[in-house]
Design brief:
This protein is α+β, with helices and mostly antiparallel strands and 138 residues long. The protein has 2 helices and 6 strands; from the N terminus they run βαβββββα.
Length: 138
């Protein structure tokens, strides 16, 4: 079990998370069957910790310190599953404002890769014995 801490809240901002990112993140979280999912965001050297209500971000060189989080997601405000999801960006470190400029775009890449890997593993579970060929007669 890992323990994480925050400093005082330095600020909050209302933001929008693209639908594809939100939907993929929630799908991965529910498939993991754990209380949280750790997703490395290697390109910016952060780790995202996804739980039922928020996503917390820790810098890999200060692993126990949460720099910022995304919380208070409001998917019910969408008119369709393709609409972005409002959320609150909360930061505990001044560095978070700079990091956030890249994070949403970078973050989406890694859950996408994780999902693709998991999907590939599921497909490999099927063997030729479990697949029944259907031959259509002309």
């Amino acid at each position: 079990m890992e323990t994480f801490q925050t400093g005082p809240i330095l600020g909050t901002e209302k933001r929008q998370l693209p639908a594809a990112t939100y939907n993929l993140m929630r799908t991965l979280f529910h498939q993991c069957n754990h209380s949280c999912l750790f997703v490395p965001v290697r390109s910016v050297q952060y780790q995202a910790i996804i739980d039922e209500i928020e996503v917390s971000f820790v810098y890999t060189h200060r692993r126990s310190h949460i720099e910022f989080c995304w919380r208070k997601f409001k998917p019910q405000q969408r008119e369709s599953l393709d609409d972005s999801v409002p959320y609150e960006f909360v930061y505990y470190d001044p560095q978070a404002l700079e990091t956030m400029q890249r994070m949403q775009g970078e973050f989406h890449l890694f859950p996408q890769q994780l999902y693709a890997r998991n999907h590939e593993k599921e497909l490999k579970k099927f063997s030729s014995e479990t697949v029944i060929e259907f031959n259509q007669k002309s």
